[in-house]
From TrEMBL:
Binding, L-citrulline: Y93, S98, N129, R133, S182, S191, E267, Y279
Name the UniProt record assigns to this protein: Argininosuccinate synthase
Organism listed in the record: Ewingella americana (strain ATCC 33852 / DSM 4580 / CCUG 14506 / JCM 5911 / LMG 7869 / NCTC 12157 / CDC 1468-78)
Residue numbers binding ATP: A13, Y14, S15, G16, G17, L18, D19, T20, S21, A41, G123
Self-association state and partner proteins as the record states: Homotetramer.
Pathway connected to this protein: Amino-acid biosynthesis; L-arginine biosynthesis; L-arginine from L-ornithine and carbamoyl phosphate: step 2/3
GO CC, any one term: cytoplasm
InterPro entries recorded: Arginosuc_syn_C (IPR048268), Arginosuc_syn_N (IPR048267), Arginosuc_synth (IPR001518), Arginosuc_synth_CS (IPR018223), Arginosuc_synth_type_1_subfam (IPR023434), AS_cat/multimer_dom_body (IPR024074), Rossmann-like_a/b/a_fold (IPR014729)
Phylogenetic lineage: Bacteria, Pseudomonadati, Pseudomonadota, Gammaproteobacteria, Enterobacterales
Coiled coil (residue ranges): none
Any one GO MF annotation of this record: argininosuccinate synthase activity
Reactions the enzyme catalyzes: L-citrulline + L-aspartate + ATP = 2-(N(omega)-L-arginino)succinate + AMP + diphosphate + H(+)
Record-listed E.C. numbers: 6.3.4.5
């Protein structure tokens, strides 16, 4: 391992799960007994996952463990900007994992520079997208630091092998062979992969959903929630002004209750593999409905079309881990400009898995009842449309005349 030369201290993105629990002793054994500093990002995952995590890292061989609260930063500086663009990867995925990874990697780099580390390490596999997202961020922010990716180096290829590895070293773990699903959780979403989902012919069962009530079991009575939007960002829920993270928390509670935000998709990973996952984004789905509702009032036809194009491009940029690239920044600048007038209130109806914007208002609304009415009006001369249509269809007229010649 030529890469081991000169590495004295490594900062590991640590979750406390099976993989990263095995990585700490593996690093010490294979990288010259280097010092391993565990970095834990609190991005809103289950509180139980963070209980005792520092002691666990130290027992496994880490010299230090730093738990950093990134919840507000995650929603305010990563989720909200992407929401402004309207990004949906392949038409449905709200990018929960994709948005979290660059923030985690950035905070990991900051810790590495602070403690004088010379290398960074992550537990992403060689099959997935996360390895790209982590390492692209590392390169953008601290190219001088070496990168260690155990899944591309070690010969531990299964859950059984990892459990045996820890058992041989008397390292306790709560992981077991019974865990058949792979899950990623943060404040924005939870994803579920593996198990029965590995065959696309298998319907997802109740074990594939971790947060939300099944839509058929949701309340029979709809619930209305009022969402206030300023410059393309959600700032209040039901009349109460909250921080971005608090807005999401409040909407998550409602979305979970009504089975909102479930998708079951087969997506194209960046590395070329198709994968299937069940994603739950309850509060985010409500936010998306509210923001798009205000946009419908405010953005003219060409602006809306441009925003849709921005969202399409942004979805690939974020999914591919290019958060700190000039391309993402330029798309964001355009989305921010369009969102300047996206202010208003929306009432969203939650009912059995759906979130529907049913009432919309904005001080910047371009909707005019006087012009739109099907009744009699005094502001629109119908005869003007004839000239417009004649000019709009002029190329078709010329083509038809040429064809007759």
């Amino acid at each position: 391992m030529a890469a081991t030369k000169g590495i004295k201290k490594i900062v590991l993105a640590y979750s406390g799960g099976l993989d990263t629990s095995a990585i700490i002793p593996w690093l010490k054994e294979n990288y010259g007994d280097c010092e391993v500093v565990a970095f834990v990002a609190d991005i809103g995952q289950e509180r139980a996952d963070l209980e005792g995590i520092e002691q666990k890292a130290l027992r496994t061989g880490a010299s230090e463990c730093h738990v950093v609260d990134l919840r507000e930063e995650f929603i305010k500086d990563y989720v909200y900007p992407v929401l402004k663009s309207g990004a949906l990867y392949e038409g449905s995925y709200l990018l929960g994992t994709s948005m979290a990874r660059p923030l985690i990697a950035k905070a990991q780099v900051e810790l590495a520079l602070k403690v004088g580390a010379d290398a960074l390490c992550h537990g992403a596999t060689g099959k997935g997208n996360d390895q790209v997202r982590f390492e692209t961020t590392y390169t953008a922010l601290a190219p001088q630091l070496k990168v260690v990716a155990p899944w591309r180096e070690w010969d531990l290829r299964s859950r059984e092998a990892l459990l045996d590895y820890l058992k041989e070293r008397n390292i306790p773990t709560t992981a077991s062979l019974e865990k058949i699903y792979s899950r990623d959780e943060n404040a924005w979403h939870i994803s579920t992969e593996g198990g029965v989902l590995e065959s696309p012919w298998n319907a997802a069962n109740k074990d594939c959903w971790a947060w939300t009530v099944a839509p058929e079991d949701a309340p029979d009575e709809a619930e209305l929630v009022t969402v206030k939007v300023e410059k393309g960002a959600v700032v209040a829920v039901n009349g109460v002004e909250l921080t971005p993270f608090q807005c999401l928390e409040a909407l998550n509670v409602l979305g979970v209750k009504h089975g909102v935000g479930r998708i079951d998709i087969v997506e194209n990973r960046l590395v070329g593999i198709k994968s299937r996952g069940c994603y739950e984004t309850p509060g985010g789905t409500i936010m998306m409905a509210a923001l798009r509702g205000v946009e419908q009032l405010v953005l003219d036809r060409d602006s809306f079309k441009w925003r849709e194009q921005l969202g399409h491009e942004m979805s690939y940029v974020v999914y591919d881990g290019r958060w700190f690239a000039p391309l993402r920044e330029s798309i964001q600048a355009a989305a921010d400009a369009l969102a300047e007038d996206v202010n208003g209130e929306v009432v969203v109806k939650l009912y059995k898995g759906t979130a529907t914007a049913i009432q919309k208002s904005s001080p910047n609304s371009m909707y005019s009842e006087e012009f739109a009415t099907f009744g009699e009006d005094e502001v629109y001369d119908h005869s003007h449309a004839g000239g417009f249509i004649r000019l709009f269809s002029l190329s078709s007229r010329i083509r038809a005349l040429n064809a007759k010649k």
